[in-house]
Amino acid sequence: MTTSSPEDRPRLGPKATEDEPFDATPVPARKGLSLRALLPNAITAAALCSGLTGVRFAIGGDWGFAVMAIIFAGVLDGIDGRIARLLNAQSRFGAELDSLADSLSFGTAPAIIVYLWSLQDLPRFGWFAALAFAVCCALRLARFNAQIDTDVQPHKSLGFLTGIPAPVGAGLVFLPFYLWIATGEALFRSPYLVGPWVALIAALMISNLATLSWTSLRPRRSVRLELLAFAGLFFAALLLEPWWTLVGICAIYLALLPYGWLRYARIRRQRA
Question: What is d(CA 162, CA 154) in angstroms, rounded to the nearest whole number?
């Protein structure tokens, strides 16, 4: 019977030696959250805190800071979903958190701010107008969540939205405030003007009106430089004349509502 030398024995691994035996114990996988999955939800939470902080500013009478907090929440809300898609970190939890944050930041918070700023001078009607805005925002978001798993969505399939989005509605509902700050006219603070305007925006949020989506806007490549110049001038206008610039944004969006409806009707006829 022959004995084999250590060199003839089969090795247990590429680096196994007589002095360092091979350890076959599997290495446990690392547990914990990755920043890729946490970042979009953190931005959503920041948007929620910004919207609710606007209420705190309104209670103290800092109306400009209150409205700016809502606008900043809208900016954060606009980037959290895009970052989630960019990082491939979409989740049902993130979608539910985003809807709850939107309901508070763009429904409850603007309603309270507008009520404290103007509508409290007309307690009954003013409070009902504020309630209508907050409730319609929640109903719109509930409709959106209910249609997430729905395959047939006529507006979405053609690149349109149904009704005014919640962040846009929050921006539009402050149009009388922008005019009040920009002009100094007390008329724009009157609850008899602000109340019907709040009710109108609330109705547009839950309407079946087809509105333009950012994804449907595809400018030609030939106007790329002009668009870059416009973006720079727009940012400068926000710094120099923020309230008049916001008035202009609201006016342009409202003017595009009939165009969006007509464009949707034309595309629908062509598809039919």
Answer: 9
DSSP character string of 71-97: HHHHHHHHHHHHHHHHTT---HHHHHH
Question: Rounded to whole angstroms, how far apart are CA atoms 188 and 183?
Answer: 9
Q: From residue 246, how far is each of 99, 175, 191, 215 by CA, in Å?
A: 25, 8, 21, 22
Cα separation, 168 vs 64, in Å, equals: 18
Q: For the chain, what are the domain ranges? A: 107-271
Structure tokens at 128: 């009902």
Residue recorded with tokens 């989506």: 213
* Confidence band for 19, pLDDT divided at 50, 70 and 90: very low
User: Global pTM?
Assistant: 0.81
Residue 211, strand partner residues: 161
* 157 three-state secondary structure: helix
Among all chains, which residue has been given the structure tokens 């103007």?
Answer: 118
Judged by phi (left if over 0) then psi (alpha if -120 to 50, else beta), residue 153 lies in beta
The residue count for the chain: 272
pLDDT tens per residue across span 45-61 = 999 999 999 999 999 99
Note whether 140 and 206 are within 8 A (CB): yes
For residues 151 and 149, give the distance between their C-alpha atoms in angstroms, rounded to a whole number: 6
> Residue 123: how many CA atoms within 13 Å on its side-chain side?
0
pLDDT of residue 112: 97
